[in-house]
Each structure stands twice: as C-alpha cells, then as structure tokens.
Design a protein that fits this description.
Length: 233
Amino acid sequence: MKGFSGFPAGKLQLTQVPNQFFSELLPAIDHLGELKLTLYAFWRLPRTPGDFPYLTRDELLEDELLMEGMQAASGTAAEALDEALERAVARGTLLTAKLESSDTDQQFLFLNGPRGRAAIEAIEHGEWRPSADRRAPVELRAERPNIFNLYEQNIGPLTPMIAESLRDAEQTFPEQWVEQAIRIAVENNVRKWRYVQAILDDWMASGKKEYQGDTERARRRYRQGEFADFWDA
C-alpha cells in the first residue's frame, strides 16, 4: 500500500462536491471504479473549457493517474473504466451522447446537472455539437434558425425552455410576425419572451390587420391595457 504524506500547509485548491453526493450517491455506490470515476468527474469537468463541459472516453484513457487507479485485479484498466462508465451512466450520475460520423464514433460525457442536461437537449435538437478534437473549436455550432438569432441578439440568452417556446412559435406564427413582435418588445424595453408571446397571441386573435406595418402605433398599443402588466413583471 502506498502511503499518503498528508495535505500540505497553506492555501489549497479545492473541488466542489454537492451535498447530494454524500446523501444520495455515496450510500448507493458499491463499486470502487464507479466511485473513483464519479469523484474524478466532479474534479475534472469544472476545469474543462466551454459552455457545456464534457469529457470523452479517449481523454479518460489518456489520463495516466486515473487509469493507474482503475487497474483491476483481473482485466485491463480500459475494461475497468468501461465498467465504471457503464455504472455511472446507468445510475444517472453521468449523461452520455454519441455523435456518429464518417471519422468518429466518440462518446461524450456530461455531469447530470443543469448544464449537462441542457447540452444533451441541444445535441438532440441539432443546436450544438461537441468536438472530439480539443485542438479544434470546442463548440461547433450549427446554423440556428433565424428566430433563435433574433432572440439571442435582442432579448437574452437562450435556455432549453425558451428554445422549446421558440420552436413552437416558429411553427405557429409567420416569420414576419415574430420579427415585428420582437422589435416592439425591444422598442418598449420589455425584453421578455412572455411579452413577445402575448403580442403574437393578440395578433392571432385579432388577425393582426389593425397594426400591420404600423410599428409606432403597435408600440403605443402594447404599452397599455393588459400588456401594462409586463412592465413590472
């Protein structure tokens, strides 16, 4: 057994581990490899660049210290890693996605937290792709439909819930309606999707004829009445 010399004096770098790990995961994990991999993910992923931090199986295999710790009594370290990965994914600690292409069939791993779940959803909808080559851009973004660009440029950051609402609006309303409703929201300085949605719903109910092409009139119209509630919302 290799001895441990103790933690040094002075300020140490720390790794955040959620309390839920100790209350739910630790009592349930009964496999040493899974435990090592789970703790490694808590340490490594926050230190990984990008909006959606991820790891690949190849990167795990290249970490000599991790693989030394994965060495099993029987079988190879790679086999032990694969078993740990399978257990962590089955438990729900890690989320996985595969991107099949002509040159790679790589497995991408995310921590099952808000950003990890958002990454999986973005991959499923074709809005974001991770790169298997860290020398290449970490985020290879597909061209988004115009409605997503409009929202991010004029309203705010895109979230999975907002993205779903935008997809629904794209299927329900003409593109010009969405552009004009967002323009009205910006001119009124009410940068909320609920406000844009309310304008679109109002146009759908009224046929939009009254305010077609009259942005100034629409701007005044949507500062009053039922829309006034959005100003303090």
